[in-house]
Design a protein that fits this description.
About 35% of the residues lie in helices and about 20% in strands. It is of the alpha/beta class and about 425 residues long. The chain folds into 2 domains: about 1-195 and about 330-425, Zn peptidases (Aminopeptidase), CATH 3.40.630.10; about 200-330, Alpha-Beta Plaits (2-Layer Sandwich), CATH 3.30.70. The strands form 4 sheets. It has a 6-stranded mixed beta sheet with strand order 1-2-6-3-7-15. Strand 4 (about 110) and strand 5 form a beta hairpin. The chain is elongated. The termini are close together.
Length: about 425
Amino acid sequence: MRERLLDRIGDRRGDLVELTRDLVRIPTVNPPGEAYAACCELLGERLRARGFEVRYLRAVGTPGDSDRFPRMNVVARREGSRPGPCVHLNGHIDVVEAGAGWTVDPWVGAVRDGKVYGRGSCDMKGGIAAAVVAVETLLELEPDLPGAIEISGTADEESGGFGGVAWLARQGFFSKPRVNHVIIPEPLNVDRVCIGHRGVWWAEVTTHGRIAHGSMPFLGDCAVRHMGAFLAALEAELWPKLAARRTTMPVVPEGARASTLNINAIEGGQPRGEGLPSPCVPDSCRIVLDRRFLIEERLEEVKGEVVAILERLARERPGFRYELRELMAVEPVLTDPGLPVPRTVAEAIRTVLGREPAFVCSPGTYDQKHVARIGGLRDCVAYGPGVLDLAHQPDEWVAIEDLVTAARVLALSVRALLLGETAAFGRSGGL
C-alpha cells in the first residue's frame, strides 16, 4: 500500500501544481485581509466534494475584522469508519503584500523551470495544496481508515494569527478530545521537521516633545531627537548583548540562534501629504520593536532590558518622556521530538527521501504557538514544501518536486498517525 500511495501522489503532480496556482491567484493580502472568504470557499467546496463536513467560521471582533475584511476561516472534517485519533492539517491562507522587484506577475502562478512562482506559493499555499492532495489520495486508496481527518485554512498568521488559529483554539478546535495531532505545512524544507520557534515581543515606543515653529526649534522640544537618543542607546547597549547570546534550540538559519531586535517601523513629525511638510518641531515619534528571544531568556527580562534604557533616559535626558505599549508577546515553543507527530513525520521523510531528517526550530513564530498555549496540544510540528529563505521575497517560488515530496510525506504521516505508528511503518505488519 505504501508504494501505491507514493506512486499515486506522483501521478497527481499536475493536480498539485494547479491547486497551488489556483490558491496563488486569490490575493489574500494581509493587511488588510483581502479575499479570505473566496480562498476559504475554494478549499471548502473542494473538500466537501470529497466527503468532508465543511464549516466557514468568521472570527468576529478579532483585530482587523470588519464587514469589508472579515476574518474568515474554513475547517473541514471527515469522520472515519471507526473510532480513532484525529489528525489536523492546518495552513494559513493569508500572504504578505507582493512588494517591488518581481520579474513575474505575483498573482498568476507562473510555472517555469520546475517551479511555481507567486506570492504565497512558498509561504504557504503550496503547503496547503500538498496537504489537500495528500489527504485526497490517501482516502481514495483507503476510504475506511479509522479516526478523523481535519484540514483548515486560517486567517491572519502573518499578523499574529489572532483572527485564525488563536480564535479557533479558544473555541476548542485545537484541543483534545477533538484533535490529537497537528501538522502545519509551513515551508521549512522537505527534509526537516520543525519542532518549535523562538519567542517574540512586539512593543510600540513613543517619545513626546513640544511643537514649535521649525525656524525657532529652541522654543520646542524635538521628539525625533529623543527617539534618536533611545536608538543610540539600543545600538551601544542592547544590540551587542543580544548578539552574544546563543541558544541550544536547533534554530535555523545559524544567525537566528542569537537573540535579535528589529526596528519594524518609525514615524515622526507632521504628515507631509502631497507637498512640502509644515515647518514644525515634531512633538511625537513612534517606533515598533520586534524582539525575538530564546528559550533560555525570560519574557519579563526581555521587557525589562528595554524599560531600563527608557527609564535611564527619562532620568538623565532633559525633557525625555515616553510611552511603551505592548503589541504582542509569545513565549518560545519546543515540541518534544519523541512525541508521535515529530517521530512519525521524521520516519516518513526517511521513507520518501531515503535520508535522515533534521529537527529544527523556526526563527519566527507561526501558529504552533496558539495550538500549544491556547489549545494545550503539544503534539504539533511544522512540515511542508518550500525554502524558508524565499518567504516574503520578490519572485517567491516553490519547487514542484518539493510539492510532490511533501504530499507523500504528509500522506504517510497521516496514515501512520491514524493507524498507530507501529503498524503503519511496518514494525508490526507493515504498509
